[in-house]
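The instructor's notes for this session suggest beginning with a concrete chain rather than abstract definitions. Hand out the sequence below and ask the class to guess, before any prediction is shown, which regions might be ordered.
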Amino acid sequence: MQDFKDGVAVVTGGASGIGLATATRFAREGMKVVLGDIQQDALDTAVSSLQSAGHDVIGVTTDVSRVEQVQNLADQAIAAYGKVNVVHNNAGVVRAGTLEELTLEDWQWVLGVDLWSVIYGLKIFLPLIKQAGQGHIVNTSSSAGLQASANIAPYNVAKFGVVGLTETLRLELDEGDLPIGASVLCPGAVQTRICESDRNRQATGLAAGNASETHQAFKNIAGPIVEAGIAPIDVAEMIITAIRENHFWILTHPEWKNVMQERAAGMVDSQLVTGFGG
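After discussion, reveal the predicted structure:
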């Protein structure tokens, strides 16, 4: 997809971080943009800011872990703009703990937001993009979808799932010779509020739960790493380039290519490669 102007983009997790940066870049390219986010105040602020800058943007309060709300996001996009060309399935949360500590509600929450939301997004939006005639889907995974880290099992599982799901999507699109691209975004450290994602848990209808010492330790370690990460707008530029050039992989940190080489070497040697948290 080369020409963004007058197209329509839908971005989940669009009120902050990578989602807001990507939505902003889409808007600057002349696209109409639909922001989906569960946090109403942040969503209102993001929409107001973009509209004040002269962009055609609407916001739809959306809990992406619920299929009916993802369907409503699509319905609102069609009602407002008549089509959808680009979808960025981007919403994400994390909950840390050992496998023994993590509750089933922890698993339900993380998989609902990080994996099922992408499944819902593909099921609902792909037919609309086909109707539009051309477009692109970007699914946000993580460096944790390339190499697992201890103590964040639900996040690892979800992000590996997003990689596999997007690979499948791309293969099927290519087999069908359709004018629709697909990319998987695997960010390393980016300046987002991912370590504060507990703030939105109760809005999904799940109890906040008691954070384990492992979860607090994870936040203490990961927080400064995230704060020192690259800016979301830099990631948004990579996404624009990937869509234009129809790249599949979007790795925000080039050193992860070396990690993947080490991982492949470990497979050859039947060894688990460790020490590459992300």
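Then share the key points. The beta strands are 8-12, 32-37, 57-61, 86-89, 135-140, 180-186, 249-251. The mean pLDDT is 91.
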